[in-house]
Amino acid sequence: MSYSNAEELLTAIQPATGGTEILDPATGELVGRVAQGSVSDLEAAVDAAHAAQPAWDALGHEERKRLLNSAADNIEANAEALAQLLSREQGKPLNGPNARFEVGGAAAWLRAATAYDIEPEVVVDDGETYATKHYRALGVVGAIGPWNWPMMISIWQLAPSLRMGNTVVMKPSEYTPLSVLALGHILNEVLPAGVLHIVAGGRDVGEKLSSHPLISKIMFTGSTPTGKAIIRSSADTVKRLTLELGGNDAGIVLEDADPQAIAEDLFWGAFINTGQTCAALKRLYVPEAIYDQVCEALTNVAAKMPMGVGLDENNVLGPLQNKAQFDIVADLVQDAVDSGAKVLLGGNPDLQAPGYFYPTTLIADIDPQNRLVTEEQFGPALPIIKVKDVEEAIGHANALETGLGASVWSSDRQQALAVAARIQAGTVWINSHGTIDPRIPFGGAKQSGYGLEFGLDGLKSLAQPQLIKG
Ligand code: NAD
């Protein structure tokens, strides 16, 4: 069935009466109502997913690929309704690298999970010994997601899981359940009954999922503290884990970079989704020689980017998704201002206006140890730190416990590569930041998590390797 707008889609996923109200973070208006799942709903979903798994696995790769591609077709057929709902619930604008982009990305990543063949690999074949490696389904995968890219990240978790013959029970963030329920509804119009379950609920439901004996693996994206809690609660059942956790990505500008040429890409590297992105550029290190030029070029780009209600086609930046995140950003910026750092742009939220809007903020001349630098702001406030040379920048970049992504900005590729090799991060981008690709594996270093998503590595991580000798 095809839904022409968010209201039609909402009628398909809301309870007939009651439920928890979800409010638009830009306006405070009602978006819709969600039926909160309990721990017993979660248990019923796990049982159903467990019962459905053998038949789903038995369909084989080609049939699962066909079904996943039809599910991607159904996302595309309902793209505008999904984007409207996502924009209203999450806050992100329809345009720019936001809601329509996210729905398009969800379809693209779903198709990407069908793009590889998984064949048995011959490990030894020397005339005497013959051994092969096979990738078997794990069983039921539990998926737990955040509120910043709710549709895209749900697909990152469920698409490779389903492709490899697993069934899935997913718990969306309590801040953005409608987006995930709507996406699940669209997918389930195509998928066989029982293979994909979405249970909206709180922390208790997440805890139960990550300790449930019938769950073989948890795909988790969210904060580092929650990732540590999941490691603990999954320990008794020795679950496999892919943990995509928090980041505080450094960008390092080299002296030969052209400030005008890099300014717009620097901006989007930091401010995509209004800064609420795991692998956004969250601290920028710039050498003295070009510090003022970079600050000026970035300020000129940032000042032109319209922020406002997501459904207004002109906007490319939106509100913070929730009050708690607004308070984190406001507190960190205030701390920087109190320390004597210089506000180049923003830093002055209108506390009387509706919505959790925090203005696009650039902070210069900031102490490298200031909390706005060392803690994850996860919002539209970028600290620009002056360094004397690249050695100092690398030292700061590697000093934190996180290591999701990083970037190096230079006109000299060889020099950029040499710097990249010394940065402790799962991905280093050269002259861009956060430009993920479904063919390129993605995962964190240090306390940003472990395991890889995307590409062939991502598919294999949703399988049990089995060696056969003989
Ligand atoms: P969060 O950790 O607060 O919540 C994530 C999910 O975990 C939610 O669904 C929540 O209900 C659930 N949860 C909470 N406690 C739980 C527990 N004890 N057991 C099981 N589940 C539990 O994260 P958030 O605030 O939604 O997301 C923001 C964070 O996520 C940021 O730190 C960001 O960097 C990170 N993030 C990382 C990536 C990545 O790919 N590395 C992507 C997006 C976001």
TrEMBL record:
<feature type="domain" description="Aldehyde dehydrogenase">
    <location>
        <begin position="20"/>
        <end position="465"/>
    </location>
</feature>
<dbReference type="InterPro" id="IPR015590">
    <property type="entry name" value="Aldehyde_DH_dom"/>
</dbReference>
<dbReference type="InterPro" id="IPR016163">
    <property type="entry name" value="Ald_DH_C"/>
</dbReference>
<dbReference type="InterPro" id="IPR044086">
    <property type="entry name" value="LUC3-like"/>
</dbReference>
<dbReference type="InterPro" id="IPR016160">
    <property type="entry name" value="Ald_DH_CS_CYS"/>
</dbReference>
<dbReference type="InterPro" id="IPR029510">
    <property type="entry name" value="Ald_DH_CS_GLU"/>
</dbReference>
<feature type="active site">
    <location>
        <position position="244"/>
    </location>
</feature>
<dbReference type="InterPro" id="IPR016162">
    <property type="entry name" value="Ald_DH_N"/>
</dbReference>
<dbReference type="InterPro" id="IPR016161">
    <property type="entry name" value="Ald_DH/histidinol_DH"/>
</dbReference>
<comment type="similarity">
    <text>Belongs to the aldehyde dehydrogenase family.</text>
</comment>
<keyword id="KW-0560">Oxidoreductase</keyword>
<protein>
    <submittedName>
        <fullName>Aldehyde dehydrogenase</fullName>
    </submittedName>
</protein>
<dbReference type="Pfam" id="PF00171">
    <property type="entry name" value="Aldedh"/>
</dbReference>
